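Every protein is a chain of amino acids, and every chain bends into a shape of its own. The protein below has been through that process, and both of its lines are reproduced in full.
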Amino acid sequence: MPPPGGDTTSVSHRLSCSHKQEITESAQPFFSWASRRLRAEISVNDVPIEFTNEDTTLADKGLMLLSYEEEAIDLKLGMPRSTYFKLDPGKIRIVVDLSSVTTTGTQTITYSILYPRGPRGELLSSSITQKEPTVRSTTIEIGELFRKNVEIRCKVVGNVAEGYIAGTVRMLPETLEVRGQQVDIMQVSYAQVTLNIENATSTVVELLGFELYDFSDQLIRSNRIHPASESIQVTMPVMTVKEVPLTVEFVETPGSRLENVKWALTPIDTITLSGDASTMAAIDEIKLDTLSLADLKAAETFTYDIPLPDGVDNLSGVTSVTLTILFDDIDSLTVDATQFGYENLTTERDVTVVTSTLSVTLRGTSTALAQVNEENLRVVADLTNVSDADGVYTVPATVYVDGLDVGAVGSYQVTVRLSGGAENSTEHN
């Protein structure tokens, strides 16, 4: 039965039993006897040396690994037959921990041999004996570590899908720290990533490797330069473009109709926006204001800053607009109203409208205003908020012009007297 794993590491085997029989097998021997006292000797060649804490602890001390004497180690190991069949030689590791290094120069450092566990997680190392080499050490050279931050450039290839635009690329980190000997890192001008956005319809986020370039834009190929990061997160917003109108909502009232109003927005009445597709789908207009026509003069001018929804950009370059309003065939007329009534009385009371004449300003076309008279002009007091006590009250009132498209401009109040309720009479404002 071959040992587990099947790694390409060169392994030779020597097996011996208590009867001093010796068998030398190829890399994957098969044993048919069952002696529990059988032992194996294996040679595992070219096990690479791993260095730990190089970019952390060692770098924090301002030091770096310049070179090492050996890249791999040949091992000769002895073990019981039972361990042999459980051991995967390809998973044997040789580790050099650099955290204890404190000075520059050439020095000898001990390495550790880490054995894998068995197929059921059982510990195998306690039964393995290292026969060669007898000394677990290697020679390394430590130098002073220098650091330099360089810019990161993004090369964009391809084009987004039709109807979309690419935004401004963002990279994390924004700069790259390179480490090494001063003579090596000083030649680095920038790092470059390449981002493909061909036919993209949504924001592209990629974790990309990079290449280092010198000041002549030549690619640097050197294993003596150590970047602090192995990859760069690159984000390219991909947005939809949409043109929507700038709008103003006008509230009509009697005598103040939109058909009699001319209005214009300058310098633009539409705006081109860009943003995420889901955000843009909900935007059909940019509303600037809501205006009651009754509150406007014959000519008005308003200036508005153009509001933008969150996550939306203005591609038009115009940030404010002016609204000009002109009334066409709309006149005003001030008359005295003499007809009064009331509404919204909540209890049985006697009501007397004290106000006998009220000057009101009306708005409408000249033709409609010419038809206003005492019979079709009336004022109605609103008694909603009066108390139960008898007394004199000043209350809001609504002006009506019956049968005509004419409306009152402004707000009005009248005075009323209530009686037939509480005994005490008071005056209210």
Observations:
- The chain has four domains: 11-143, 146-236, 240-327, 331-427.
- The first helix runs from residue 54 to 60.
- The two ends are 108 Å apart (CA to CA).
